[in-house]
Amino acid sequence: xxxxxxxxxxxxxxxxxxxxxxxxxxxxxxxxxxxxxxxxxxxxxxxxxxxxxxxxxxxxxxxxxxxxxxxxxxxxxxxxxxxxxxxxxxxxxxxxxxxxxxxxxxxxxxxxxxxxxxxxxxxxxxxxxxxxxxxxxxxxxxxxxxxxxxxxxxxxxxxxxxxxxxxxxxxxxxxxxxxxxxxxxxxxxxxxxxxxxxxxxxxxxxxxxxxxxxxxxxxxxxxxxxxxxxxxxxxxxxxxxxxxxxxxxxxxxxxxxxxxxxxxxxxxxxxxxxxxxxxxxxxxxx
Length: 286
Prior knowledge:
By secondary structure, the chain is an alpha/beta fold. It contains 15 helices and five strands. The protein has a five-stranded mixed beta sheet with strand order 1-3-2-4-5, sandwiched between helices. A hairpin with a 2-residue loop joins strand 4 and strand 5.
């Protein structure tokens, strides 16, 4: 196969040890292939080149599907080449077919630890200790030194939102590549930022409640209250407020009742509240 020590062949007997266990130390790219497969042979030089150039920053694990049919069945391999990237014991990416060198580099770079990732870890430690400014300073430095690391930009944007530096956070999110911006975590940051922007100049929660008590049709106050509730994690009450806006005026503020609920759905992911309120939303929309 290759004298490169960063390229190995794995079998059903050692897959868990060589791939799953080792992925806690570094990314492991598993290539399911066969000798008769033309596209596999086209991909092979690219993979070997990357394994050589990255010099131990990731491990290339080759699985010959003719010899290892048990593994191919275990992972539901129906076409080759198929690649699965493991990190921290889990499959984090999957690709089928021949891939360009540029795309594979982009994929690997997303999971290979860089010096700026060690700065990220220190920033998170400071954040956990309550030193928000110290954490932000570290992330600003890391972003300046390694502006191509999307993990740094995401952490920096999240803390900027916490600190109220909303323009800074917006600029950071806009710098992310399009494929990264479509990921769930970044979509959640976008939703969080939009909520923070909503309340940037809004009164405090008590004042908003007082306005609604005086005038239930004050939808601007209701929107501000919904956003403040969401930002402090009062999800159900926030969803109720957005739903109430939808009931009273579906088109208010460009459909903020609907859009606000969708923002919270993004933040909650697979929380049971999402299914519950999607049904309520559908009842009013359709």
